[in-house]
Amino acid sequence: MIVVDDPIHGDCEGIINRIIDEHESRRESLGPALFFLDQFGYSSFAMSLIGRILKHEVCEVFSYLNWSLLHPFMADPTKRAGITKAFGGEEWLQVIGLHGKEKEDRFRDVYLTALRQRGGTRYAYPFAMRDHNDRVIYWLFFCSNNLRGLEEMKRAMWTVDRSGGFEFSDKHAQSFGKLFKYEDAELANDLAAGLDGRTLTIAEVEEYVLVNTPTCNYKRALGLLERAGRLEAIGPATRRRQRSFNDRNLRVRFVDTVQPKDQTLFDY
């Protein structure tokens, strides 16, 4: 039997703070919980609310920013207090003079920085929805302090929607990471460029992939790199089949080359 609590009508920020206060006063666990916070247009909830939620274990946040309803009001001085409250600072003002994709990308990156620096978010990752003209409609910023939480959210997005409509905004992927069109070869190229010359454990490679790329699956990409001579397994000295990366303690070296950074290894 599934029990669903009755909806609570009122101010979102006030109600959530009250719920947290009640749990803390009783020394009860708040989570596991996923908070979907809707930043509709220029109305706002404080960045500090995200920080307060994430201080509790197994609590995560989806912060929804409707870009199409927000950016027309950014130059209106009467709306600035609300946006500043959402960021916890005024650095967002730097995007007002920008246009098009440059404005979208800069605004997204400034908000990601605020989530990490002021919202106490260790892992912040944006999902973007674009219209048929490739313009951003809105972002969903997933916020978590648990790497497994980020992994499970990515797996859920792959499972639920294979239409290609959702898009990761990732600085490493040249295609800016269209979620369902990001192939093993593209990941292999991005890993070769981003980790050239570095030695990492498989566990560290996994974290890099989850935090910096659009995917959560990486072993086939590592196999492509090993077969191409761009990845070496260097320890611990255990017997392993080539292109097998199940041992999370296995250390691998991304072979340093003089290949230009903008030259790809694999076609996709």
Give a verbal description of the structure.
This protein has 268 residues and is α+β, with helices and mostly antiparallel strands. The protein has helices at residues 12-25, 47-54, 67-70, 80-87, 100-117, 147-160, 184-194, 202-212, 219-227; strands at residues 33-39, 59-65, 123-130, 136-144, 166-168, 199-201, 231-235, 251-254. The chain has 9 helices and 8 strands. The protein is globular and about 60 Å long. 36% of the residues lie in helices and 17% in strands. The chain folds into 2 domains: 12-169, no CATH class; 184-254.
* Number of discrete domains: 2
Number of helices: 9
Order of strands across the biggest sheet? 1-2-4-3-5
Structural class: alpha+beta
DSSP helix fraction: 25-40%
Beta fraction of the residues? Answer: 15-25%
Q: How confident is the prediction overall: mean pLDDT?
A: 84
Main sheet properties:
5 strands, mixed
Q: Unreliable stretches, pLDDT < 50, 5 or more residues?
A: 169-179
The total strand number stands at 8
The rounded distance between the terminal residues' Cα atoms is 47 Å
Helix-strand topology string: HEHEHHHEEHEHEHHEE
The Rg value, from CA coordinates, equals 21 Å
Shape: globular
